[in-house]
Amino acid sequence: MLVPLLLAGCAGTTPGGDLLWHGKDWPTRHSPTPRDAAMEARIARILAGMTLEQKIGQITQPDIRSITPDEVRRYYIGSILNGGGAWPGMKKDAPVTAWTALSDAYYRASMSTDMAVQIPVIWGTDAVHGHGNVAGATLFPHNIGLGAAHDPQLVERIGRATAKQVRATGISWVFAPTLAVGENRRWGRTYESYSSDPAIVAAYARAMVHGLQGGLTGDGDVVATAKHYLGDGGTFDGVDQGENRAARAHMVQVHAAGYYPALAAGVQTVMVSYNSWNDTAAGTDYGKMHGSRALVADVLKGRLGFDGLVVSDWNGIQQVPGCAKDHCPQAVNAGIDLFMVPDDWKAFIANTVADVREGRVPMARIDDAVTRILRVKLRARLFDRNPNASAYAGHAEALDARDLAREAVRKSAVLLKNQGVLPLAPGKRVLVVGSSADSLSNQTGGWSLTWQGTENRNADFKTGTTLLAALRETLGTANVTYSEDAKGVDPGKYDAVIAVIGETPYAEYNGDVRAPKPVAHSSLHPADLAVLKAVSGKGVPVVSVLYSGRPAYTNDLINLSDAFVAAFLPGTEGEGLADLLVGGRTDFTGRLSFAWPGSACSTGEGPGNVVQFARGYGLSYARPARTNALAEPAVPTTC
Length: 639
Ligand code: GLC
Description:
- This protein is α/β, with parallel strands linked by helices.
- It folds into 2 domains: about 35-400, TIM Barrel (Alpha-Beta Barrel); about 400-615, 3-Layer(aba) Sandwich (Rossmann fold).
- Helix content is about 30%, strand content about 10%.
- It is built from 21 helices and 19 strands.
- The strands form 6 sheets. Strands 12-17-16-15-13-14 form a 6-stranded mixed β-sheet, with helices on both faces. Strands 2-3-4 form a 3-stranded parallel β-sheet, with no helix packed on it. A 3-stranded parallel β-sheet has the order 5-7-10.
- Strand 2 (about 80), helix 5 (about 95-110) and strand 3 form a beta-alpha-beta unit.
- Helix 3 (about 50-60) packs across helix 13 and helix 7 packs parallel to helix 8 (about 200-215).
- The longest helix is centred in the middle third of the chain and has 17 residues, at about 365-380.
- It is globular.
- The two termini are about 35 Å apart.
- It binds alpha-D-glucopyranose.
- Alpha-D-glucopyranose (GLC) binds near residues 84, 175 and 314.
């Protein structure tokens, strides 16, 4: 089994020899970062000189679309973010120099207040598979594919490369890694989870935090974020932002599995999750995470000893009963330190000042929040210099990580079927079909240039190679014919057909496949079934490549194929797939990090679910195996 080997290399594992915590209750942990007395004294001095308005400005995080640099100065803002699809000047093709110019403007504004001690603003962004917001940045496979690589060292290298991409734009904080343990295929954020196996999530948590943060103080380091705390991947029926009904032991051992190593690796921020937790077995409803003092203050900061900052999610406070997106004393008192209030930040500041003045929020809580924010900023050396003084700032070449991404693509694809068809010999004449063959959007998925990954043309990416282009490079343009729908072409004229099918991009709840809809690729994307029917059984082998953010029922598609590759969401470097499909120089090593369902209503991996391919499954050229015809249970209209 790969996982024990995977974990064997992780230094500092628990006495049990692995990263996992097997206790039924929360472990007791301490911050891995020794408290720096001089730093703490400096923090106390800065705090003592701050007015209430300055403190509340420091705990507020607007989106760049709703705040100017001068407002950062006037309102003493401590942090800003660019949500998915927010670019300097709202120009999708903004060059890195436009990003650094805006970063410099915000930084200088934050250092020009009338405060006794200036506090630099910190800018956060979602670089969840490379710096997704920036045109020209190499995009890596999404987490679901990286999980199939079973390679923490690869993930650490991706973290290093991502940090450099982000520093090239003058940004110092990344809202990654996502540490969700995805348990239901319906969930629209399944692809942001590394695995349904907590051991893989735990191993990758440590790796990605080390990769992103490095020593926290270098030109190529960024502050990382363990998210979304806690239980985002286990909501009932996979409803995004829904209710997790796990028993305490399951929450402690499975959904928190990534947090223990992330905290031990020194992650400096934790993002609170939208979901709620209702421990139905114990009859204890903790409610929304954004309002849970028990989970944020008592467990995360108390038992687990987290001494960095806790940030809310985008308008997440409004989901707390009795709260609004611009006002939530419950969330402040729960222990959240920094509030992602993208648009209504002025009202939030006024309301929270009033909360303190009128006794709904104790000043000690605000002081704790500001202390933690200052501690993270001092640890990351943000007080020492302008983030645009970094050796990477403004250098577009730092966005390039194509070789690493191509390696990651090769390692993350999983061969589910191969009836002796692959690898294709060089020079073969190939018909390529399918709407995903020439689509960087379908190849990269959500969080790519835009939040949803939609409204993008191939040219918008400025870099990247579709699988079609990669096949033309590898086989020779004259040997590759493309027909998106296979109409008007005769497959019999070719040596092989490559069908590139897939989901269209989505992010978050837009990707939910809500019950009782079946999770069957053919019913969700009928054009893919149609194109396979058009080319299958014509006496020419058919190789199918599937882009998807989740495992889904595909037995009907696999039966129409002579080879079938689960490519997940590979990112910009389609050449990594051509490396596997042609020539045999590179073999498949990917192994499923989620079980693959054998029926359209099997949305999980527990009892009652039909599993077609177990977690850990994957074929290779070195270990070939023939696949019998798969059962094709009727796909119901509702599960
Ligand atoms: C989103 C996501 C979170 C992301 C944040 C900022 O709603 O839940 O993962 O970091 O907003 O874009």
